[in-house]
Write a structure and sequence with these properties.
This protein has 426 residues and is α+β, with helices and mostly antiparallel strands. It folds into 2 domains: 279 residues, Alpha/alpha barrel (Glycosyltransferase); 101 residues, Ferric Hydroxamate Uptake Protein, Chain A, domain 1 (Beta Complex), CATH 2.170.130. The chain is 46% helix and 15% strand. The strands form 5 sheets. A 5-stranded mixed β-sheet has the order 6-5-14-11-12, covered by helices on one side. A 3-stranded antiparallel β-sheet has the order 8-9-10, with helices on one face. Strands 1-2 form a two-stranded antiparallel sheet. The structure holds cobalamin (B12). Belongs to the eukaryotic cobalamin transport proteins family.
Length: 426
Amino acid sequence: MLPLIIISVLLAFTSATPCDTQGSNGELLLSLSKSLLRSLEGQGTLPNPSVHLALRLANSHNLAKESEHLNQLKNHFHNDIQNSLSNSQAVTGRLALYAMALKSSCYDLNTITFTVSGARETLLTHLKRQMEQEKEHIAFSHRPLTNYYQYSLGTLALCVNGIRVNNHVSNKLIKATQHQHFTHGDAESIDTFAMAGMALQCVKEAGSYVHNAAELNTALAQIKQKLLAARRPDGHIGNEYSTGNAVQALLAMGTPVAECAASMEAMRTDARGSKYENPMASSQILPALHQTSYLTLKTKECLDEDDTLVLEPIDPVVVLPSGTTVTVIVEVVMSSGATAQYSVDVPKDSSLLEALELLATGNVGFTFEKETSLWGPFLSAVNGELARQSDRRYWQLSSDGTALSQGISDYKIGKPQKITIKNSTY
Ligand code: B12
């Protein structure tokens, strides 16, 4: 009898260990996949290659909806990139995510082409060219045209698609790692270290980097060390939104799953709360929770796939306004240093975007503009002043002196506070 009890207790314990993919963890993975599938149904949103990738790297699938989404990517997302290419805009990251999304569905990339100045060339040829331009820009001005996160995505996308990455391209990423050039505003970018780690690990495994193998190994060790050192006591690596990329990178670099247990648990807790409502956020943590990474795309075969993921209809949740309002002070700091301050009362738990909209309709002289991105609306102009990426400037958001870890549409105003919107360099 006693051994039986011990076995049952052990079984109960093991099924609750942080890394199991069964039981409550399995349910969590399913519910994350379902909410990503639901996000595809949102009206007017551009299909998102990162969401496609996450769905394809998961264990449970809804093959019909995934294939429908692939078609939308091939139309709408494709056209969006085509327009940017025709206007000579750098689209490294988007091209890379698109290439990885197609690969995740085992789609023949040689059939995907873009036409610029009358010449029709494949997606991968365009990506290679963008990477050359990025590399030239680094040589000239010590930073990529876009950023090192996208430079890493580009390297990774070429590599997982079996394209030999130019040694000079990899070398620039190795050098940037050595010199710790991965920043996000005025802080370190753990997301970028993670993406660079996956890219360089892929290059290493492809055996294509013949420049200096020792240097490549040192860069990988530095990245691993950086990610491990960025672990917080609560398990997050960097912040809530970089942990998924960081765990993916650690796993890709051969770290045993058990070493990531605390970070996995932190992500699961976040996922059960409402931290990952933004589909882009869930898309970056889902592969990590499946104990996999973008690197596995290299060997992805789309055979005998599960097709059991079904979306049950959900009853719309009606949130009644609580009637409570909170006062938000909005301070705007222009590039000249001039400041302006406004006050607005908003219903509790309004988004910052709703607060700004209310302020803008109040005839107090406050105006703003936003641009769409995969993460949602990006604040681009305030009081008529643009913070342009071409000038390496952006409107930095903070609350009571602490930088926000979410953007204007996700950040919720739960209590009275002072929001500062500052034209900053990065
Ligand atoms: C590079 C980068 C930046 C650069 C972008 C400019 C550039 N050319 O380099 C700068 C420094 C300007 C920046 C600013 C901010 N960022 Co940022 N950024 C990134 C990073 C590292 C890569 C983005 C990227 O190139 N993606 C690849 C391309 C293909 O996707 P894309 O959608 O086309 O990319 C554009 C958007 O992502 C946009 N963007 C960048 N950051 C953010 C943040 C938000 C909320 C939105 C809506 C858009 C946006 O700029 C990209 C380039 O054009 C990501 C990391 C990650 N995991 O994604 C963080 C990340 C997206 N940023 C983040 C945050 C919080 C911010 C800020 C809100 C910080 C702040 N307190 O002010 C601001 C945005 C404020 C605003 N004006 O709306 C968070 C978002 C988390 C969340 N839940 O929303 C991330 C995930 C980092 C993190 N782990 O915390 N960012």
